[in-house]
Amino acid sequence: MDGDLLVRLRQMLPDLRPAEQRIAETVLADPVSVVGATIADLATRAGVSQASVVRFCRTAGYEGYPGFRIDLARTTSRRAAEHERSGVAEGEITRDDDLADVVSKIAFHEARTIEGTARSIDLQALERTVRAVVDADRVDVYGVGASGLTAQDLGQKLARIGLVCFAPVDSHQQLQSAAVLGPGSVAIGISHTGRTVEVHQALSLARRRGATTVTVTNFPASPLARVSDVVLTTSVRETQFRTGALASRIAQLAVIDFLFVNVAQRRFDATSEALKHTYEAVQQHRMAPGT
Q1: Strand ranges in 4-47 using DSSP code E only, listed in sequence order
Q2: Inter-residue contact 75 to 6 (CB < 8 Å)
Q3: How far is 140 from 263, CA to CA, in rounded Å?
Q4: Of 264, 196, 258, nearest in space to 232 by CA
């Protein structure tokens, strides 16, 4: 199957049955050892039946355990090769890493995150979102915390090229903004987990008002995705010090750039003119060279 199996397992984890969650957690904890494990071995380690392992493999998209194990071997081999090419012995940051090691590992993971997100993003979903934004009378973008910063980034970019776009920070303002949307408007919700209550409330309201709804998330089966017409999925590799906000930020920004540049391209002449005017408007706030 396409994509990184370990990333896909993390995406599936919140929506799996309890027994399947234990299997996924066992695989994620030590994928290399699972490659050499029999179905009986994995069942014993996870504390489940062999039948549960078979069901888990089918849930993950495989006919059975052999196919799952082959794909897991490919994923772990590919990751090991990536580490070797990048001169990174392992992905995790340890207490003994020096400053150069930490910088190298962060750079390694951020590069892999962008590559994985670009490789796995649904281009049809992206195209649908681009068309909706280009044709929209108004765009709302919702996010909270670190995802709120991503929402503001998109809001600023779209506004700079002349689109009517709002990215309210306060959750009450998000609801008020969503309440006045309608058919022809677009509402974009950003949440790594897809379970942020405030974003879910605003996006749900926007959908009831008739707006086209879009979610940017790492979990395509999340509650936020279920209230969206279009889902743009990130591909995040979490590590010990890069979970949650740290891990999601770079992937979300990549998706936002994919979306923005395509929107700007579709409005090429208008975008060029808007960028010229907005650039000139702020020049008086820049210090002269040599100052």
Answers
A1: none
A2: yes
A3: 15
A4: 258
Same domain, 136 and 241: yes
Q: Which of 6-15, 133-142, 164-173, 207-216 has the lowest mean pLDDT?
A: 6-15
**129 in the same domain as 69:** no
CATH number of the CATH domain containing 271: 3.40.50.10490
Beta 185-190 vs 138-142: how paired, if at all?
A: parallel
Q: What is the identity of the amino acid at 24?
A: A
* 167 and 67 within one domain: no
SS (H, E, C) 181-195: CCCCEEEEEECCCCC
**DSSP per residue over 47-75, as a string?**
TS-HHHHHHHHHHTT-SSHHHHHHHHHHH
Q: In terms of domains, do 197 and 77 share one?
A: no
Domain boundary among 86, 108, 138: 86
Q: Is 136 found in the same domain as 27?
A: no
Q: What Å distances lie between residue 195 and 217, 225, 244, CA to CA?
A: 9, 9, 12
Alpha-carbon span 122 to 264, nearest angstrom: 19
**What is the DSSP-derived secondary structure letter of residue 87?**
T
For residue 92, the number of C-alpha atoms closer than 13 Å in the C-beta half-sphere is 5
Q: So what's the pLDDT on residue 247?
A: 64
Range of the domain at 72: 1-86
How far is 42 from 160, CA to CA, in rounded Å?
Answer: 53
pTM reported for the whole predicted model:
0.83
CATH number at residue 77: 1.10.10.10
With a CB cutoff of 8 Å and minimum separation 6, the contacts of 8 are 1, 60
Token pair recorded at residue 30: 């030590």
